[in-house]
UniProtKB/TrEMBL annotation:
<comment type="similarity">
    <text>Belongs to the Skp family.</text>
</comment>
<feature type="signal peptide">
    <location>
        <begin position="1"/>
        <end position="35"/>
    </location>
</feature>
<dbReference type="Pfam" id="PF03938">
    <property type="entry name" value="OmpH"/>
</dbReference>
<keyword id="KW-0732">Signal</keyword>
<dbReference type="InterPro" id="IPR005632">
    <property type="entry name" value="Chaperone_Skp"/>
</dbReference>
<protein>
    <submittedName>
        <fullName>OmpH family outer membrane protein</fullName>
    </submittedName>
</protein>
<dbReference type="InterPro" id="IPR024930">
    <property type="entry name" value="Skp_dom_sf"/>
</dbReference>
Length: 201
């Protein structure tokens, strides 16, 4: 999907690290002639360095989201799938009828070919080829239209999923939420949480 489900947010501890670094940078440029100021600065520097060290030692909070599962199991995805299938049901039935007709004609041809003249056989073969070509074209158009319609519907669901992920990331202070991974622990999989949020919308 073009829309990325990756979220990288800075929690309060990250802001603390940035502020600590800024304070350290400023104190290093303070004039050396102010001895008292230097003592105060040194004390502040130690405190900010300690805060930065604690912050940097804090583990990252990471979550994983299975997009395929969201587009399969969430209520909006199921609703969209049912709607699309209903829209294309008539065309699908027409394709089935055409395929059945081709099969019947092919079976009839195989049955009668021993008693056909060369002209009759050539004519029947051309008719079968024309029906098959028409069937393949209609199947291709059907698949292209179906995929286009599905992509349109599901892109909206992906947008909603992205919004839900941002909401959860900010609410629960996630540092990183990823979409694809080779292996994932169930401990960091928040897909069901995202689906629950989507189902309520």
């Amino acid at each position: 999907m073009s829309s990325s489900l990756v979220k990288n947010t800075f929690g309060k501890r990250k802001v603390g690290m940035l502020l600590a670094t800024s304070v350290i940078g400023l104190t290093l440029t303070a004039p050396a002639v102010f001895a008292q100021a230097n003592k105060t600065t040194a004390g502040a520097e130690k405190k900010t360095e300690a805060a930065a060290e604690v912050s940097s030692n804090s583990p990252l909070k990471i979550g994983f989201v299975n997009t395929e599962k969201i587009l399969r199991d969430s209520a909006p995805a199921k609703e969209a799938q049912e709607k699309i299938e209903a829209e294309f049901k008539k065309r699908d039935e027409e394709l089935q009828k055409l395929a059945n007709s081709l099969r019947s004609k092919a079976e009839e041809f195989d049955k009668n070919v021993p008693v056909m003249t060369d002209a009759e056989r050539s004519k029947a073969q051309r008719e079968l080829a024309d029906i098959d070509t028409d069937l393949q074209r209609k199947r291709r158009e059907f698949q292209e239209d179906f995929n286009r319609r599905r992509n349109e519907a599901f892109s909206g669901i992906v947008d909603k999923a992205n919004a839900a992920i941002r909401e959860i990331a900010e609410k629960d202070n996630y540092d990183l939420i990823v979409q694809d991974a080779v292996t994932v622990s169930a401990r960091i999989d928040i897909t069901e949480t995202i689906i629950q949020v989507l189902d309520k919308k």
